[in-house]
Amino acid sequence: MLRTLALTLILATPAAPARACDTALLLAIDVSGSIDRGEYALQIAGLYEALRDPEVADTLLQGQTALAVVQWSGLDRQALVLPWQRMLTPQAIARFAGSARALPRSFEGSDTAVGQALTFSIAQFADVPDCKRRVIDISGDGPENAGNTVAKARRAAIAQNIEINAIAIEDMGLSAPTSNFYKNWVITPKGFVMTARGLEDYARTLRAKLLRELIKPIG
Length: 219
Description:
Blueprint: H1 2-12, E1 23-30, H2 37-52, H3 54-62, E2 66-72, E3 78-86, H4 90-101, H5 114-123, E4 133-140, H6 150-159, E5 163-170, H7 177-186, E6 193-197, H8 202-214
Parallel strand pairs: 1-2, 1-4, 4-5, 5-6
Antiparallel strand pairs: 2-3
Helix pairs in contact: 2-4, 2-8, 3-8, 5-6
C-alpha cells in the first residue's frame, strides 16, 4: 500500500523542465598553409585543455551550451568537423574534448579565406534554433588573403544577430597585424579580440576567451 502510494506521488509530480540552451558556440579553427603540423597540434591540444578546465566545464554546463567545431582554410575549404552537441553532463564535455583532441586536419597548404570561413560558420546555426545566443569564436594567424568577402560575411552575421569574437595568433613581439585585422574587419560591434603570442599561448587565451563569452555579466 505504501509503495503504491509512493509510486503514485512520484508519477503525479511533474518533471522539472529542461533548461534552455543559453549559447550556441561555434569554434572556427584556422588550418591554412601558415599553420604547420606542430602548430596544428598545439591548437588541438589547446582546445582540449581549455574545454577540460573545471571552470570552463562548469560554465558550459550551467548554460546547457551547444558546441560545434569548424576547420577552415582557403576558398571552398571549410568543414564541420564536430557537429553541434549539447553540453548537458560532465561526460558530454569530456567526450567532446576528447573528440576535439583527436581531430585530423581537414586541409593542407592553402590560403586564408576568412570571409568564406565566416559564411560557412553562419550557415551552421540553422541546426540550433532554440539557443538564445549564437557566437562564432574564430581563431587565425593572419589577415584574409583570398576571397575578399570578410566585410560581406560580417554584415550577414550582424543581420542574423550572430556575435563574432576572435583569437588573433601573433608572432612574439610587439606588432599585432592579425589582431588589428580582426578588430577592424571581423568582429561584430559587441565582439572582442584576444591575442595569443604564439600558439604556445593558445590554450590560456582560449580558456580566458571562453569564460568571457559564456559567463553572464552581473548588473
